[in-house]
Amino acid sequence: METKNIMIVGVGGQGSLLASKLLGRLLLTRGYDIKVSEVHGMSQRGGSVVTYVRFGDKVYSPIIDKGEADYIVSFELLEAARWTEYLKPGGTIVTNTQQINPMPVITGAASYPEHLVAKMEAKGLNVDAIDALKLAEEAGSAKAVNIVLMGRLSKCFDLPLEDWMTAIEHSVPEKFLELNKKAFTLGRNA
To answer: Hey, what domains does the chain have and what are their CATH numbers?
Structure first.
């Protein structure tokens, strides 16, 4: 199988590392060679976080270059727009419509860009935008945005739903299991 590339992008504290762990576990159980690389940046101060997940028959490097991502999963709208140059032609951006103001917006030095989904689509990009925060809150916790987006991403792959659920069971604490399964289902069916 040709190597597939997934970028998970967001702001520190949104759960991108759990999402990459879940994906890694799922893909390993399906027999793929997988490489995961995490770039934290200023994650503890609300800065960008990027995780690369690459899988296929044989993967030699964990890094995704510009124009190579089959999928970009974004936990925040501006982060989706920031990383579009990494998407390959025909790739898909799965993004949360939530807007988290970066420091220049907070200080008044800049304003949050408007109409980002429309701007990305105007570039010819395939954008699947959902209000993952609303769905996460419906599931029981705003912190489940990451799992909502994994549910949405799952529609892009021909992998059994049971395998996704098993990966969730092995990735989250038992006391949060039902909440996360609900979040995943809401994202998948949105």
So the answer is: 4-189 (3.40.920.10)
